[in-house]
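1st attempt posting a full record on here, be nice pls
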Amino acid sequence: MAIKVIAQRREVKLGKNPGMKFVMRPDLYIPIAEKKVFAEASTHSGISAGVIKAAWDAAGEVIRTWATEGHSVPLPGLGTMRFGVRSKAVAELEDVACAASSSPPTRT
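the predicted structure (as tokens):
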């Protein structure tokens, strides 16, 4: 399975050769309404949209819980998903920061 990508020309300020460069990014579409997803899945599977919605909600809870605990979660037809973070290297534990994290850093 491939993802649709486009090349976008933008100014790159970092690296050995800053300047105008082409950068690849995913081609984004408008969001699809959940009802449309349920209707399409119902048509493909023969299962009622209500049952699919219940399963969708349950799977969403499980995926959210496991992914936020650090597990790699399988997504059928896509592969696996897990969250990652980026940060700068710092000398002291107290200086570690992540804007998305609500828990204090722990020493490992």
